[in-house]
Design goal:
CATH architecture of the largest domain in chain A: Alpha-Beta Barrel
Number of domains of chain A: 2
Strand order of the largest sheet of chain B: 4-5-1-6
Strand content of chain B: 25-35%
Structural class of chain A: alpha/beta
Helix content of chain A: 25-40%
Helix content of chain B: 10-25%
Shape of chain A: globular
CATH topology of the largest domain in chain A: TIM Barrel
Largest sheet of chain B: 4 strands, antiparallel
Low-confidence stretches of chain A: none
Oligomer: heterodimer
Largest sheet of chain A: 8 strands, parallel, barrel
Number of strands of chain A: 22
Strand order of the largest sheet of chain A: 1-2-3-4-5-6-7-11
Largest interface: A-B, 20 and 17 residues
Structural class of chain B: alpha+beta
Radius of gyration of chain B: 11 Å
Number of strands of chain B: 6
CATH architecture of chain B: 2-Layer Sandwich
CATH topology of chain B: Alpha-Beta Plaits
Shape of chain B: globular
Number of domains of chain B: 1
Number of helices of chain A: 10
Distance between the termini of chain B: 9 Å
Chain lengths: 415, 73
């Protein structure tokens, strides 16, 4: 068992996600701003001006915050990079996650702690040693086995490889989320076909589509048993988390900065419970089954343990999109909050809800909240059903704003 | 007359517009995004009337933009 405290690192693409990560027990979050992060195509990405609030929210909740600046950098990006790093320094963001040497160099000049991104594909102890002159944490390549991870962590201890802070180098690995069919940072499919560089955060995910193989001479289509021949299933290590922790990796990272607060909430909570169970020796098959069921409710492409157990790539998705067992249907938005009695009012803008439905609330103040409605109050009176235009009220400890969205949870019959 | 319309907010600074049409585009050192030279700004959108002779080339640029924020109207 590792002597280090395990840090659970959750993705945050919005303030809703940050709150969801906090509520679910994350020790740290990572986020990106502007176009210099691997999710440049996000619908509403964080801006430089958001750094201050992100740092404040994380500090107030005693969790760490890391900023990803891990795209390929061009000359015209350098001033933006410097502006971002100034804000990072000013607001005390805990570290930068990067792979480009310009970012590494600038972090040193700004004296900002650095983590080496998985985009750098660190796969051996000598690479760790090299980066120890610049960083305190390395995110290992996602393509290593746990045995290889373990060898690296043991060698760090044996050789006493220390990072910039003077402490032993820490190893971070991904424990959950999407995997690439290519080695991270080395895929050019999207760039070649649509001039959309994955390494500038513009991946168009060619690998997630079905493909046919045609003999151009005869025009005959070759039979392949699964059309999704380039789309790996998602990584899920909840069933082998004891082995993961034994490997000596002490930062466990969840992938998914472009996913919603519901995903962040469910996945973070499951891994929080699993890490704590390994720690207090109550990690069991029953619990694993329960977590797997929970994890399957949010976006996923089916699960496997990635490359960690030495398996070759061969676990392909069977369907397009998500295999989540639940889906969320938009119902309406927050319209009023009564702080004295702590009651929230939502206006229904689409669809309908009935007594007994499970509702999900997403918002900056709440992260994600899910609850079955046993007592439905519609326009101030008890009712069995609410439809478009109705106002519903229910008890809610946190303040509701018009940006808060309410969803109905349904079983996904296509999963 | 044709126009180039640039939804600049969503630019990821990939450089391809400048690469293909350096007379019309430059990369801003200030924020790393592409700038449509001599354009007029309407809210967050930038518009430039263009000569017929560069319409085809501009359409190629619009096609090459990975985030599809360049339109020719």
């Amino acid at each position: 068992m590792t002597k280090n405290k395990i840090e659970l690192l959750a993705p945050a693409g919005s303030f809703d996600c940050i709150q969801a990560a906090i509520n679910s027990g994350a020790d740290a979050i990572y986020f990106g701003v502007e176009q210099l992060n691997m999710r440049a195509k996000s619908v509403s990405p964080f801006l430089i001006s958001d750094i201050k609030k992100i740092a404040a929210v994380c500090k107030a909740n005693k969790i760490k915050s890391y900023i990803t600046l891990n795209t390929v950098m061009y000359d015209h990006d350098i001033r933006l990079l410097q502006n971002i790093l100034s804000e990072v320094k000013r607001n005390g963001i805990d570290a930068v996650i990067a792979s480009d040497f310009a970012v590494i160099q600038h972090c040193r000049q700004f004296n900002i702690p650095l983590h080496i991104s998985t985009q750098a594909n660190v796969s051996n102890i000598e690479a760790v040693q090299f980066f120890s002159s610049f960083a305190d944490v390395v995110v290992l390549a996602r393509e290593l086995t746990l045995k290889q991870v373990s060898q690296i962590t043991k060698e760090i201890e044996r050789k006493k490889i220390k990072g910039v802070s003077g402490k032993l180098m820490k190893v971070e690995i991904f424990v959950h989320g999407a995997l690439c069919m290519a080695i991270s940072g080395k895929c050019y499919l999207s760039l070649h076909t649509q001039n959309a560089s994955a390494n500038r955060g513009a991946c168009t995910q060619n690998c997630r589509r079905p493909y046919k193989v045609t003999d151009t001479e005869t025009n005959e289509e070759l039979l392949i048993d699964n059309e999704y021949i380039m789309s790996p299933k998602d990584l899920c290590t909840i069933g082998v988390l004891d082995e993961v922790i034994k490997s000596g990796a002490c930062v466990l990272k969840i992938e998914g900065r472009s996913k919603g607060a519901d995903y962040v909430s469910v996945v973070t909570k499951c891994y929080r419970e699993a890490i704590d169970s390994v720690k207090n020796e109550t990690y069991s098959e029953n619990k694993i089954q329960h977590w797997k069921k929970e994890l399957a409710t949010v976006y996923n492409r089916g699960f496997w343990e990635g490359y960690y157990l030495g398996h070759q790539l061969g676990e392909w998705t069977r369907n397009p999109g998500s295999a989540a067992t639940e889906k969320k249907i938009y119902i309406g938005k927050g319209s009023k909050y009564y702080p004295k009695i702590k009651v929230a009012e939502f206006t229904i803008e689409s669809g309908n809800i009935s007594k007994g439905d499970t509702l999900m609330l997403l918002g900056t103040a709440h992260g994600m909240k899910k609850e079955q409605i046993k007592n439905l109050i519609v326009n101030g009176v008890q009712a069995d059903e609410a439809v478009k235009g109705d106002k519903i009220t229910f008890a809610c400890a946190t303040k509701v704003s018009p940006k808060d969205k309410l969803y109905k949870i349904l079983k996904n019959t296509n999963a | 007359m044709h126009k180039i319309v640039h939804y600049r907010n969503k630019c990821i600074g990939c450089n391809i517009c400048y690469e293909l049409q350096p007379e019309t585009w430059r990369m801003s050192k200030k924020d790393g995004k592409a700038t449509l030279i001599n354009s007029t700004q309407k809210k967050s959108v930038f518009i430039l009337s263009i000569n017929h002779s560069i319409v085809n080339q501009s359409q190629e640029v619009a096609k090459a933009c990975p985030v599809k924020i360049i339109k020719i109207i």
